[in-house]
Amino acid sequence: MLNHYSTYLSTYYNFSQNNLKENSKKPSKSSPFECGFDPMKSARTPFSLQFFMIAVIFLIFDVEIALLMPIIPIMATCDLKLWLSLSTIFILILLLGLYYEWAQGALEWAN
User: Fold this and answer.
1) CB 102 within 8 A of CB 109
2) Model's pTM, two decimal places?
3) Which of 39, 54, 62, 108 is most buried by a 10 A CB count?
4) Is the dihedral of CA 28, 33, 39, 43 positive or negative?
């Protein structure tokens, strides 16, 4: 019963929203709000894809560095050979990822 009521209510709200709203075609309604002033430029400025790729690579390696932080405290509670092998594997995976990004040219900045 509750399922039918919620379906009816959501359909009613959706129908009333689409049919009762005011359609304003003013250009000021679609522009970004800047403290009540008219915007100086368009909000859709071109963005460098190379900068975006460098930022994504930085974020990925930043998270991986955060994953490296618990390695030192774990050393005190873990077997030294196990700790050394797991740490080496993790760092090798990081280095392989860095080498792959370098080989693909993601770290090269075009002129």
Assistant:
1) no
2) 0.52
3) 54
4) negative
Helix (H) or strand (E) holding 9: helix 2-20
Residues 24 and 22: their CA atoms lie apart, in Å, by: 6
Q: Quick check: 75 and 83 in contact, CB under 8 A?
A: yes
Query: What is the arithmetic mean of pLDDT over 41-52?
Result: 75
Contact 57, 65 (CB under 8 A): no
Q: Which two tokens stand for residue 47?
A: 């963005």
- What pLDDT score was predicted for residue 28? 63
Q: CB–CB of 61/98 below 8 Å?
A: yes
Looking at mean pLDDT, say which of 17-21, 41-45, 78-82 comes out highest: 78-82
